[in-house]
Amino acid sequence: MSTTDKPMRFAMGGIIHETNTYAAEVAGQTPLTSFEQYYGDEIPGIFAGSNHQVGGYIEGAQKHGAGLIHTFLGQATPSGTIEANAYAHMKQAILAGIEQALPVDGVLLALHGAGVADGIEDIEGDLAAAVRALVGPHVPIAVAYDLHGNMTEQMQRAVDISLPCILYPHTDFYDRGVECVDLMVKMIKGEVKPATHVCTLPMLPYIVATNEGFVPARVNALCAQLEALPGVIDCSWFHGFPYADIASPCPAVICTTNGDPALAVRCAEQVAQWIWDHREDFRPQFPSPEEGVAHALAASAGPVVINEYADNPGGGTPGDGTYLLRALLDAAPAPDTVCFASINDAEVVRQAIAVGVGGTLRVSLGGKLGRFQGAPIEAEAYVKAITDGRFVNRPGSMFEGVRFDLGAMCRLVINGVDIIVTSRAEQIYDMEPFALHGIDAGRRKIIALKGANHFRAGFQGLVQQIITVDSVGLSTANIASFPRDHLRSTLWPLHEGVVGALYKAAS
Ligand SMILES: [Zn+2]
């Protein structure tokens, strides 16, 4: 432990991946080359000031006059199971960096919580345990997570301070990063002594936003109420990540108090009980793409956002699903009524580039990456625009100010519907991808997009209505439709009549 007379030094590293294990079956495992990989001193230049755990760590360290030794950060768009050697490489980069930095006063890890590598279904627990073994029992370890993590005992045992983000869309990564550092500093100074309790719930709901009107907003309100009690440091919850065939994917409530284990148990159990009692509110009821499109076309005013829940690249899907796009085309809307972003099809983008702007081509669009994606759209397409796929996310959106590079992109027009085609899968966060291709999306009746909830930050307030549609897909809200070879728990709503302990402590 440090004394207060010399500046503290923290080591920082991370691996961020939300693993949809079902995507591996159709799109393969995720190799190292799919990861953005940042080493040492290049990290602050990339992340300082951004809405990312590391942005918060940098700010927090600065605020407390602490030194931050950056080791390695690897992150990739959600996708299939991580290749074993890719995970091993990244883990080793972090461990070697920390070892070189020793002695340190604390370790800050930036993790997701739902990372699965080939042979290791809890990479966060595995990495945290290895870091713990390296630094010993007395150096605090703090982690800011994505709330879509599946909390495990291994994660909890190895880490002193675990803070999942609270908001979905995740507009508070930065804030949680800063909080992690604040708490770690207090811990080192002896001002707090974290006592943590985790309650996992025997349920596996689909993933739901925390915006007003959704049930997680009410869970958050209860957590905030308990957090106001004297002695409670943090009360929050992991929503769980259902698209992973692992032993126990489920939500978990985590409460951290200042040296009061009984209070931590009471608060965590109270929130877990509330979620359990309201589990029926987590049952999805979405229209089909056809129903959603008909409803949107009949709306008195636009724009209406229709989001395709079942093929959400933010949940690790290939992004080339055609269910919503087909429903839009089948509805034969008037020209300039509908714009859609985006469908992932690098081959079609290449064909469009070959034909050039102003040309027409016969396309077989999407539906190529596995049996969950629907059949390809066979059609005549007009090439309206081709771009480099580089843009900056707009103010107010979840990744405000963050640069994206989706590879070569094009705007095709098929039967009057404007379709943005990308060279890689990515969800849509705001109207910028449309603007990049000359579309004023705010003037369209229907803005159709792929995504579950993150888009809400960038669209809410700018549109009249949001209609979520669901279909077959690798991120369908119909969680019970996935095979579960590795599951070792009985979970609502996968199994009927889940009884016994409503929740169990992970500690
Ligand atoms: Zn998330």
Automatic annotation (TrEMBL):
<comment type="similarity">
    <text>Belongs to the peptidase M81 family.</text>
</comment>
<dbReference type="Pfam" id="PF07364">
    <property type="entry name" value="DUF1485"/>
</dbReference>
<dbReference type="Pfam" id="PF07171">
    <property type="entry name" value="MlrC_C"/>
</dbReference>
<keyword id="KW-0482">Metalloprotease</keyword>
<feature type="domain" description="Microcystin LR degradation protein MlrC C-terminal">
    <location>
        <begin position="307"/>
        <end position="484"/>
    </location>
</feature>
<keyword id="KW-0378">Hydrolase</keyword>
<dbReference type="InterPro" id="IPR009197">
    <property type="entry name" value="MlrC"/>
</dbReference>
<dbReference type="InterPro" id="IPR015995">
    <property type="entry name" value="MlrC_N"/>
</dbReference>
<keyword id="KW-0645">Protease</keyword>
<comment type="function">
    <text>Involved in peptidolytic degradation of cyclic heptapeptide hepatotoxin microcystin (MC).</text>
</comment>
<protein>
    <recommendedName>
        <fullName>Microcystinase C</fullName>
    </recommendedName>
</protein>
<dbReference type="InterPro" id="IPR010799">
    <property type="entry name" value="MlrC_C"/>
</dbReference>
<feature type="domain" description="Microcystin LR degradation protein MlrC N-terminal">
    <location>
        <begin position="9"/>
        <end position="297"/>
    </location>
</feature>
<keyword id="KW-0479">Metal-binding</keyword>
